[in-house]
Write a structure and sequence with these properties.
GO terms for molecular function: phosphoribosylanthranilate isomerase activity. This protein is of the alpha/beta class. The protein has one domain (about 5-210): Alpha-Beta Barrel (TIM Barrel), CATH 3.20.20. About 30% of the residues lie in helices and about 20% in strands. Strand 1 (about 5-10), helix 1 and strand 2 form a beta-alpha-beta unit. The structure holds the ligand O=C(O)c1ccccc1NCC(=O)[C@H](O)[C@H](O)COP(=O)(O)O.
């Protein structure tokens, strides 16, 4: 399968180079001060210009107001906005209209009860990020290295392109793709040697494993 990979939480020039060299499709920058992957607008501006053509730059924000989004979009060469907080469908639509950029909305999944939310957001965003729901009280709404039960979405399709995330690693990504049929995957902690520190070898192994995956044929 031609699986497209997003590596999230890049914070150095070497990270951007590793992601580009591995053949990933998206590079994610986290704007969330509590995160070990947080980057300043200035850092992101410098990193984004290093990305080659074909590597889409994704700005990840959590319940950001317009002032912050204005600053990011004015200063950083961003291709996609990723909304990773509790933004309502109305807020997603508003951000999309205001900035004229594709918007990816992250939706956390832990049980079957979380699935209807995906339907609500597919009407208003350009892509859906189907991520593991953060545990109650977690500091971070994403990037926790936790997987959800992939069988919950096996064979499910949405009206928008979607991406699978949550606890993916070079070891399990092929199985996740095979089970869910995901054409796009997102990883952060699974390609780190320590929180916030990406590992070029792991990035390479992850992209190779994702791209080598086969979807299980339906009988
Ligand atoms: O990665 C973070 O630090 C982060 C902080 C705040 C909101 C979202 C965050 N990450 C979201 C992502 O896009 C991750 O790639 C996704 O949740 C998967 O993370 P992981 O399970 O660590 O691979």
């Amino acid at each position: 399968m031609d699986v497209r990979v997003k590596v999230c939480g890049l914070s150095t020039a070497a990270d951007v180079e590793a992601v580009a060299a591995a053949g990933a499709a998206y590079a994610g920058f986290v704007f969330f001060p509590k995160s070990p992957r947080n980057v300043s607008v200035e850092q992101a501006r410098e990193l984004a210009v290093l990305a080659p053509i074909g590597l889409a730059k994704v700005a990840l924000v959590v319940n950001a107001d317009n002032e912050f989004l204005d600053e990011i979009t004015n200063k950083v060469a961003v291709d996609i906005l990723q909304l990773h907080g509790s933004e309502s469908p109305e807020r997603v639509a508003e951000v999309r209209a205001r900035y004229g950029l594709p918007v990816m909305k992250a939706v956390g999944v832990a049980t079957a009860e979380d699935l209807p939310q995906l339907g609500a957001y597919e009407q208003v965003c350009d892509q859906i990020l189907v991520d593991a729901k953060a545990p109650k009280g977690a500091d971070l709404p994403g990037g926790n290295g936790l997987a959800f039960d992939w069988k919950l979405i096996a064979g499910r399709r949405w009206a928008r392109p979607w991406m699978l995330a949550g606890g993916l690693t070079p070891e399990n990504v092929a199985r996740a793709v095979e089970l869910t049929g995901a054409a796009q995957v997102d990883v952060s902690s699974g390609v780190e040697r320590a929180p916030g520190h990406k590992d070029a070898g792991l990035i390479h192994s992850f992209v190779a494993a994702a791209q080598g995956a086969q979807e299980i044929p339906k009988l």
